[in-house]
Amino acid sequence: MERKQIFARRFFLAAAAGCAIWALQEYAWAQSEDDNSFPKLFKATMDKYHNEEFDEALRLAKKIRQLYPSEPAGAFGILTTYQTIMRNYRVRLYESKFDSLLDLSIELAEQAARKDKKNGKNYFYLSCAYGSRSMFFAQRGKWFEAFRDGTQISKNFNKALAFEPDFYDSHYGLGLYKYWFGAKAKLLNVLPFTNDYRHEGIQHIKLAMEKAQYLNVDAMYGLTAVYYNEGEFEKALAVSDQVYQRYPKNPSMLYRRGRILQALSRWQEAMDVFQQLHAILETTPYRSISYQVECLYQLAKCHYQLGNYSESYRLCGEALVLEKSCDFSKETDGPLETFAEIRKQLHELNDKVRSLALAQTNRAGVK
Questions:
Q1: How far lies 256's CA from each of 148, 259, 260, 349, in Å?
Q2: Which pLDDT tens digit goes with each residue over 98-143?
Q3: Which of 62, 104, 111, 362 gives 20 to 30 Å between its CA and that of 294?
Q4: What is the rounded CA–CA span in Å between residue 70 and residue 321?
């Protein structure tokens, strides 16, 4: 099972390159002042997408689909918006919609590549479409299908850069693939050159962050995750700072930022971030009980490290009550640990702070 989980994470991270792929089709039309031009529709969609305004992002993506039905952009935009909601809030709410959207995205991307075989952007489209379907297969335990689609990722990214080397957005997708392939292959001890793959991947992502026309923000997210995985927490925080300034309410960014600050033992700052995240998770219509449980656990851990044992114990108790309502037919695991691992850590922390909290309360009563 561990080998399968490694493959699933590899495909998931490689597929992340497609998060804003519908942007690329801007090249297909001349610039226009018309509000229904692809460039303006796309830019408006991206603005809503990054600011968590998903209903409006969906409306605009559907409009792209309606006005430009032969292009992958609209279908992939709808799919990616649903995917982002599920990833940011750890819910399975839109999984039933994915099959048809994934197949349609693949079909339209293949048609575009056949129509213009020397257009590098079509291969970028195709690679990202395969990446998203590979991720979906892996999450459902369809490992053969996931691996089959996964083999198309690197091949098509390389084609994209071969035909259009100055299209720097392609470096983002190739960089993610190379880095996470090297990182996960290292765990399996199957390649002697995984460090080279990881280094190459980081350079590709950094290039995209600096020069990509559309995916520089996505590259920031990707590089933050890479630096965290490398244990380069100061570098991860520096990139996270840039994203936080622009999109301070994005739950995935807040979660990653909180974990980075914990890794740097900046416990008060981490606690502030997780409090902000918890407030979002309590009020969002996309409710994940397991995500709230983990957030409460992370807050409890921060309070424990700051010596606030009574508050840490209270938060553990609140998390343990919520834990009983988790429903993984509707929820998903987070990016760093499974919920089973978080649950184990929560129970261990609760046992650890119980006596400490009692002693702290008694001391306060004596005073």
A1: 30, 5, 6, 21
A2: 778 888 888 888 888 888 888 887 888 788 888 777 777 776 777 7
A3: 362
A4: 50
